[in-house]
Amino acid sequence: xxxxxxxxxxxxxxxxxxxxxxDDNGRVTGxxxxxxQIRGFEKFTExxxxxxxxxxxxxxxxxxxxxxxxxxxxxCDAIMAVRIPPTARQLRELxxxxxxxxxHALSFFYLSSPDFLLGMDSDIATRNVLGVIAAHPELARxxxxxxxxxxxxxxxxxQERVHSSWIVPGGVGSPFSAHARDRILADLxxxxxxxxxxxxxxxxxxxxxxxxxxxxxxxxxxxxxLVDTPGNVQFYEGGLRFQKADGEIAADxxxxxxxxNWIGEASLRESYLKAPYFKPQxxxxxxxxxxxxxxxxxxxxxxxxxxxxxxxxxxxxxxxxAHSAFLNHYARLIEIVCALEKIEMLLNSPQILDKHVRAxxxxxxxxxxxxxxxxxxxxIHHYKVNExxxxxxxxLIVATGHNNxxxxxxxxxxxxxxxxxxxxxxGMLNRVSAVVRAYDPCLSCSTHANGQLAxxxxxxxxxxxxxxxxxxx
Amino acid sequence: xxxKKLSVRIDGELISAVEGQTILQAARANGxxxxxxxxxxxxxxxxxxxxCIVEISGTDRLFPACxxxxxxxxxxxxxxxxxxxxxxxxxxxxxxxxxHVCSACVSNGHCELQAMATEMGISTVRFAYNYPKLAVDLSxxxxxxxxxxxILCTRCVRVCAELEGAHVWEVTxxxxxxxxxxxxxxxxxxxxxxxxxxxxxQACPTGALAEKGWAVEExxxxxxxxxxxxxxxxxxx
Lengths: 473, 237
Description:
The complex is a heterodimer of chains A (about 475) and B (about 240). Chain A has about 475 residues and is α+β, with helices and mostly antiparallel strands. Chain A is about 45% helix and about 20% strand. The model of chain A is unreliable at about 445-460 and about 465-473 (pLDDT under 50). Chain B is about 25% helix and about 15% strand. Chain B has six helices and ten strands; from the N terminus they run ββαβββααββαββαβα. At the A-B interface, helix 2 of A face loops of B.
């Protein structure tokens, strides 16, 4: 019996390792996905004023702080029991779409494209973004430009590219300027052209990845994502929809405050990351996925012409629902198209320059839940406060958490298919890492949990016999 | 009776001061800046922060410029490697004592402690942090007291006593256990003496006292208002 450890999994956000167990014939007998860090946000925010939560929880992540700011501010809006000004809602959506563009561009071009542009088995020394720049300079430049476009919108609204404090309970900190709007509108055609070029290129390349599409986490699961009343993809508003693996809707338009009736959270022994599950199915059968692929699966359409054309082609090619985790990359590109169209719509809204962008109030409700679609999937912030407004309890469910069980299953599937323990090589292991990357997990986000640590240390002899084991949790 | 004129050297430059002035006042009157944190124009100086320490010829001791009166013939040094080192240590110890997390603070970007640390070039702290578990008092309807961010400068104590005349704030306990308390250790919302005037909030150099509801970076203190109020009322510290 042998054991392979991939530590750390590279080109992801956060820290993880994977253990693969092999039998004497080199066949995979089991896999484990370990998330190896703990953050503690739910615990150390106790006692803080609720209105500080957006600023504190945004620090969970430097890739998509905007998502945390939004989910947290929505939870605070609920505590204040205010309806934020319509322009503030539009501005929040605008910055959110910009974040979707920049985060997806990061995932696709910087983190994952080395795998499909240079090859899963290519030299590990150059299988990175620098290798992509050397081999495909045009595509690399496109990736940098697209990410820059998203970041520039974030900067023009929030004054800062990474940790803006512009999204606040009750709305946003300041109104939008005509000058900034016009500058973004001027840059928009170039960004759209990049998105279209990239999606055309990727569609052409998909045939080279038949094996990956077939075996990369293609086991059917349930999906969850936000949709509006007609069933359009939603990033900011909307209710939560659960879809069964066969496409049937299991639950629909679940408002944020009802999430706990549908989502349970299990603690795992091998990881700091909790495993949410669909309550009616129980644990671990209630495995579901969130993220770009899930959003395109649960929705009927995107609601914008170019994105809808891509949406239809996607489902014609891969079915509805489409199950392969590899298709997350494709879905990300379609979502970039969708986000760019939405940005254009919002920028042309007659209300977007309105000066009234913030509602104020004190504590009017002792509990609040905020739910948005982060680039990696559904993000939920749930706070309880006392009458003075101090946080007494907090629960955060982050996209990568929802995907925890599915990532584990995908690792198992890829390992079983690609790993042959009798003649191991690095490319095999890279495919295992690549399936994790397909989910674009943000482990720094997801390990916010509190309570007792669930950790297992195993001491094994060279032959693989278990000599000793220490376990907590 | 006209005040007696004194001749003093500050950093080698001969300046004229008047009897009764502190070194800090004499320096400022002659366009010389000495770093301070607990000082606020119009309030009685207390020498709490030790940032304004200066060297005086003829003695090895360091003196706080805000509470040391000038004397005729005194030669004062306000800038030296030794003073920089002591000031940096004082600031670093302020940071390790409580939980100053700028990134999540309402006063980020408008904080005198943060600005002073930037000025002194402090990018890391050499000592272990205390990480004390400290309460946030949210009981006042408009204001919040966050002990995590308090540096015990006592500006709030002084402004409340000297300008508002309410005497709500005091310091309890000693040493590292010292805390700002309102009305003999009541929750702020229960402090009957508080007029809710907000002068303590505006005087506070950090995010320890803040208006409720502001997000990160949004709390801009108007402590110039305190000083101009003092001048208009003719209150003499």
